[in-house]
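Possible regression after last week's pipeline update?

I re-ran a chain I had predicted before the update to compare outputs. Posting the input and the new output here so someone can diff against the archived version. Not blocking, just want to make sure nothing changed silently.
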Amino acid sequence: QVQLVESGGGLVQAGGSMRLSCAASGRTVSNNNMAWFRQAPGKAREFVTAISWSGTTYYADSVKGRFTISRDNAKNTVYLQMNSLKPEDTAVYYCAAGGKGAPRGINEYDYWGQGTQVTVSS
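New output (post-update):
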């Protein structure tokens, strides 16, 4: 049974920072692609960032230079550090675990967390 549990969401002012965590069980983060997606109200779920099983990182253009994905293999946890947050970053953020396919593809991910709300006020 694979479980992904996100934490760390909340309310922050524009320009602020926030760190999300995704604790995994039943799946080793270092052996699989791990990603963060987000979904704003009325919009489709979109790719934010991923770290491949080999350690390569990928970012959406909209977050490049502001967000950083990392993982702690000992804790089997993936993190999303978000800096210089903007109101348009407001969304529910989802952690996802997949195999070893295309890291940006939403259909590559088999397991999803419950999501955590991030709200950025202007």
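Follow-up from reviewer: compared with the archived run. The first strand starts at residue 3 and ends at 7. Marking as no regression found.
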